[in-house]
Amino acid sequence: MSDPAYTRRYFSDSARRWLATAYVDGTHPAGYPLGSSRVRLALTAAVDRLGAACGRLVDVGCGGGDLCFRAAELGFDTLGVDIAEGMIAEARRRAEELAAAVRARVEFRVADVLALDDDGEGPLDAVTALGLVEYLDDDAKFFAWAARRLRPGGVFVVSCRNRLFNMASLNEYTRRECDGGGALALLGDLAALPIGCDAPALLDDFVRRLKDALPELEAALAQDRAAGAEAPDRSAEFRGERRQHTPREIEAVARAAGFQQAGSVGLHPHPWPPAWERVAPRFYNRLASVYEALETAPASLMWSSSFVAAFTR
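RE: above sequence
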């Protein structure tokens, strides 16, 4: 587990820079919009399970508030919770730019969620936690907290770093799995992924997106050639440990906490091993966005470095 004090300090001190990178605001045009993609997938999962009955949502590890803003626009009454004071300050600042009706549905609080007691307003309809569990040391405690706070039929959505991707990344993570004896089990999980009955329709969508993206891919490649190979700037990266999970592992934790109807979708697709991103980052990440057409296919867990998992209480 990462040191909690370091994690809080890192995200508090680097809040604005981290948000610009995760949501690709133009400062980092060559990147992949991981933040907005996982917000989209998480809220799609929540709305699909809840239907029109939005209700109350708590976003744990809310960062700059993007999920809360979008959820409020959909009709949720939202509370964003984060241990990083700098992130909450950014969320509150950005909330001032919302329409009044949306802003009235949004609240932010600096808190450790496991110390967050029942607020007396009854059970929650949805709990989301995007990019959080990788920093925790006890999944079971967090999932048990979510199960206590949710009403029966409520939805719990998390995103996780995908350990299955270690077998496709062909980097130090692959070597670590081979040396540590985990590779065969991961390959077994990958081999068990079903193709899915909707694969033909997904492939049709993939082809349409690829055709539409061709002009942008050509332009991106030209930009990459003009810029030359760009070594990624690692100076501001998080230096603590960030845990990985497989969908099967996180689903087991969820079942033990009383959740059911598990479902996982791929997040942050990689068309080729990540080392290729350094060669042509704009091209690589524009092509990655085309692969979003396949994100609901179980096979997407093979080439996605993260995943979003949803459960029903």
